[in-house]
């Protein structure tokens, strides 16, 4: 597993390094990056010893089968054709998959590095682009986008399942698949299977994180692999994994997930505090990692310019419109201001069990548990009282890591109980999430993203437009211009806001143009864009002025892998 993860990390990192002098990603750059990744993976494979696998029991087999079926259902249908339409399986993924398609084709188009943002003019790309860049490399060597999404999704899911099992056995697999509170018990009231957690803040992690947050396809297995290695190296007999492998996965983590990097850094800090014997090794590891990891964070945060959403927010999402709307539509509006109901309905028995776990590890002073579960509990507590991003729901990206870090130690505590009590607590922990998982993956789903005709028409209109020219469009999440990878003046508000971009001024200009307010034509001539695309029943492309960005004449005019009606691919 470590060798496959090293392959992805080394391929993406080397592609970024090569893209700077080569003027972007291209087939030769992709081939060279994959070659470097292959050499790195081979060295990792030779250096990582064959570890002793944990004993397999019936619960392990059952959870593996469930995980495999869920992964196959989610990723084989992550983007699929249905007649003239392209659809996605999950409504949670409509906005996310649009952004990823935009990013993959944009990066594969050969834009200069570090790229400008494709969704907002005048700012650098502020995004952990790692896994989308990996898909862009696959696109450059001939793998169609939707096929790449499927194969990378399946590989990432397999590695995630394997690393979860190595970290915490069947219980850790269940913790990702079935996290939830009490909402799923509504199945006995309604008689129907559905994702009862879809409108709650505490959603099913598999459906809303692993499937939609594509960076986790690498960050989750890599982070869990590092947790396993550090558990062995700092508290047990040693993993035997070469230190350079752990170093590579750690310092490249910001390129895939900044939240994962922050959590892993906190784990290292926890190990430093609780294990004095390993402090010298930890200091050396962190000292060597500071420069490359900070450089990676420097780029993915737009030179540390990303707007901070840090603010005191006790109760997390108790006052959010998401929660209030859920309570009102459920017919229990009187519970709007009920703090205890928010925690009970969202988390069920998870919170009291985590509190008991915290009491136990403080009492026993188990250093290993203090490092991993203790850090997880502290992060969990912080996320309950502090918003760490512009959208408070993004705290879930750290809740996820805190929950998984606690999973093996939570099971150790539960395993000491009698079988009936242990079974009851596991039922209360996972029943709601299991119902949500089945409801979220059933055959009733399928949501239109776009149509072949709209993509064909748009691709034909853009055929002679230099690839780096910016286009003014209506800010729709599934706009065909974005799906084809073209940079736009101001994109979908949900993407802009959640990425911490200050887009208000450009949004106002865009509204003036699209609503044709007085003076809109003069405004159009002053903005950082070269074309206006009107998404009418008969799309119109209008040139604003000829002011191409540097080197744009050398870029391909057509979107990578898309030629109207030439293939069934997107």
What are the SSEs and their pairings?
Layout: H1 2-22, H2 27-47, H3 58-76, E1 80-82, E2 85-88, H4 94-108, H5 130-140, H6 145-177, H7 187-190, H8 205-210, H9 216-235, H10 243-251, H11 253-256, H12 258-274, H13 279-300, E3 310-312, H14 321-329, H15 339-347, H16 350-364, H17 367-385, E4 386-388, H18 396-414, H19 419-440, E5 447-451, H20 452-461, E6 471-472, H21 480-483, H22 493-498, H23 504-514, H24 520-526, E7 531-534, E8 540-543
Parallel strand pairs: 6-7
Antiparallel strand pairs: 1-2, 2-5, 3-4, 7-8
Structural account:
- A 3-stranded antiparallel β-sheet has the order 1-2-5.
- It is built from 24 helices and 8 strands.
- It has a domain at 450-554.
- The protein is mainly alpha-helical and 570 residues long.
- A hairpin with a 5-residue loop joins strand 7 (531-534) and strand 8.
Major sheet characteristics: 3 strands, antiparallel
The portion of residues assigned to helices is 55-70%
Number of helical stretches of at least 4 residues = 24
Number of strands: 8
Rg, please? 24 Å
Span from first to last CA? 31 Å
Mean pLDDT: 92
State the main characteristics.
570 residues; three-stranded antiparallel beta sheet; single chain; three-stranded mixed beta sheet
């Amino acid at each position: 597993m470590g060798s496959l993860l090293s392959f992805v990390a080394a391929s993406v990192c080397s592609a970024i390094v090569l893209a700077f002098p080569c003027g972007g990603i291209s087939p030769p750059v992709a081939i060279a990056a994959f070659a470097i990744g292959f050499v790195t993976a081979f060295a990792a494979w030779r250096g990582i010893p064959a570890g002793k696998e944990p004993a397999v029991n019936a619960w392990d087999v059952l959870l593996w089968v469930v995980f495999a079926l869920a992964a196959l259902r989610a990723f084989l249908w992550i983007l699929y054709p249905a007649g003239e339409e392209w659809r996605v399986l999950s409504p949670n993924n409509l906005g996310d998959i649009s952004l990823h398609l935009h990013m993959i084709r944009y990066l594969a188009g050969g834009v200069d590095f570090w790229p400008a943002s494709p969704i907002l003019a005048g700012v650098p790309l502020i995004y952990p682009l790692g896994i989308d860049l990996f898909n862009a490399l696959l696109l450059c060597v001939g793998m169609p986008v939707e096929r790449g999404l499927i194969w990378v999704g399946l590989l990432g899911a397999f590695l995630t399942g394997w690393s979860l099992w190595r970290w915490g056995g069947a219980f850790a697999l269940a913790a990702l698949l079935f996290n939830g509170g009490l909402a799923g018990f509504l199945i006995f009231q309604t008689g129907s299977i559905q994702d009862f957690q879809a409108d709650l803040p505490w959603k099913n992690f598999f459906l809303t994180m692993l499937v939609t947050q594509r960076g986790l396809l690498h960050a989750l297995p890599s982070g869990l692999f590092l947790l396993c290695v550090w558990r062995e190296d700092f508290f047990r007999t040693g993993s035997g994994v070469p230190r350079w492998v752990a170093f590579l996965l750690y310092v490249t983590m910001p390129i895939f997930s900044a939240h994962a990097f922050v959590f892993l850094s906190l784990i290292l800090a926890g190990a430093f505090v609780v294990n004095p014997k390993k402090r010298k090794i930890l200091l050396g590891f962190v000292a060597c990692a500071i420069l490359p990891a900070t450089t990676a964070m420097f780029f993915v945060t737009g030179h540390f310019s990303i707007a901070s959403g840090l603010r005191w927010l006790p109760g997390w999402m108790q006052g959010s419109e998401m929660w209030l709307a859920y309570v009102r539509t459920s017919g229990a509006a009187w519970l709007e201001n009920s703090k205890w109901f928010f925690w009970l309905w969202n988390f069920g028995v998870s919170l009291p069990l985590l509190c008991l776990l915290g009491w136990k590890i403080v009492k026993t002073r188990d250093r290993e548990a203090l490092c991993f579960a203790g850090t997880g509990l502290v992060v969990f507590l912080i996320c309950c009282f502090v918003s760490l991003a512009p959208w408070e729901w993004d705290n879930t990206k750290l809740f996820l890591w805190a929950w998984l870090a606690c999973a093996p130690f939570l099971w150790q505590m539960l395993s000491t109980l009698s079988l009936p009590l242990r079974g009851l607590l596991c039922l209360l922990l996972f029943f709601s999430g299991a119902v949500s998982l089945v409801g979220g993956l059933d055959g009733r789903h399928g949501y239109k993203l776009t149509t072949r005709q709209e993509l064909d028409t748009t691709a034909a209109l853009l055929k002679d437009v230099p690839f780096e020219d910016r286009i003014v469009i209506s800010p729709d999440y599934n706009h065909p211009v974005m799906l084809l990878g073209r940079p736009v003046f101001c994109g979908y508000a949900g993407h802009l806001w959640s990425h911490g971009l200050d887009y208000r001024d450009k949004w106002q200009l865009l509204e003036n143009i699209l609503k044709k307010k007085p003076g809109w034509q003069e405004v159009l001539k002053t903005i950082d864009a070269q074309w206006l695309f009107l998404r009418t029943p008969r799309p119109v492309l209008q040139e604003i002025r000829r002011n191409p960005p540097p080197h744009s004449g050398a870029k391909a005019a057509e979107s990578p892998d898309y030629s109207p009606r030439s293939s069934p691919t997107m």
